[in-house]
Amino acid sequence: MRTRVKICCIASPAEARLAIKAGADALGLVARMPSGPGQISDEQIAEVTAMVAPPMATFLLTSKTTAADISAHIRATKPTTVQVVSHIDPEELARLAEIEPEIQRVQVIHVDGPSALKLIPTYEPFVHGFLLDSGRPDAPVAELGGTGRRNNWEISAAFVKASPVPVFLAGGLSADNAQDAILQVQPYGLDLCSNIRTRGNLDPSKLAAFMQAVKCADQNSLNR
Fold first, then answer.
1. Contact 214, 176 (CB under 8 A)
2. pLDDT by residue (tens digit) across 27-51?
3. Do the Cβ atoms of 1 and 219 come closer than 8 Å?
4. Contact predicate 29/49, CB 8 Å
5. ∠ CA 7-10-15 to the nearest 5 degrees?
6. Region 69-92 average pLDDT
7. pTM beyond cutoff 0.90
8. Backbone angles phi, psi at 63, to 5 degrees
């Protein structure tokens, strides 16, 4: 199976076009967060989603925690997918599924230990996928993504194996470790932001190197 690639922290239509041309499957658009890189306004997010055609997916990264607030955020920005970056009350996700049935829902799981596996049955009935990251939601200033740190890949691999829905892997990924990530974790997709950027801007050379690394890893997996 081909590993999907989600390029996060897209800042403009120009960056979106660059990621699409490189072969990305999805674009991540980071709204206001307590911390982390790549944040843009809702107006900028809507500008990108308006110019992206299917089958390219656009992920709204929202820190909203209630179904009503997430729904309002979706309607203001018009993505194809909402990525919920906090460990919210699952009842809110259930309500969101009722009021925004056409929107794909991805729940972020911040992998801080084996307890992450216990969240699969909590959220799985209400989502189309998970994304494993390395944030610290309970830090004095909450970290909800964009840390550049790897999570525990052994736990992430167990999560992927146990999950009945697709799982993206995020956190500290680069062209140098993409193959190891795919072989060890076997995720549905990889998600990254910082290691394909130079001085904050999406770098075509780094992006191309990452996409090539993913392609080679997939080919090696087929040949095993």
1. no
2. 999 999 877 788 999 999 999 999 9
3. no
4. yes
5. 95
6. 97
7. yes
8. -100, 5
Residue in the structure block whose two tokens are 């239509």: 13
- C-alpha–C-alpha distance, residues 212 and 197, integer Å: 16
Of the candidates 75, 80, 86, 70, the one whose C-alpha atom is nearest the C-alpha of residue 36 is 86
120, 157 in Cβ contact below 8 A? no
Nearest by Cα to 24 from 7, 1, 44: 7
CA torsion, ordered 88, 95, 56, 111, to nearest 10 deg: 20
Reported confidence tier of residue 222, pLDDT bands at 50, 70, 90: confident
User: Domains of the chain (ranges plus CATH)?
Assistant: 4-223 (3.20.20.70)
Query: Beta-carbon neighbour count of residue 127 at 10 Å?
Result: 21
Angle, in degrees to the nearest 10, between helices 178-185 and 153-162: 50
CA geometry: angle at 138 spanning 39 and 45, to 5°?
15
Q: State the amino acid at position 111 in one-letter form.
A: V
Confidence (pLDDT) at 70: 98
Which residues contact residue 8 at a Cβ distance below 8 angstroms, ignoring those fewer than 6 apart?
Answer: 27, 28, 30, 38, 59, 61, 145, 146, 170, 191, 192, 193
SS3 119: helix
pLDDT in tens, 117-172: 999 999 999 999 999 997 676 666 666 676 677 889 999 999 999 999 999 999 99
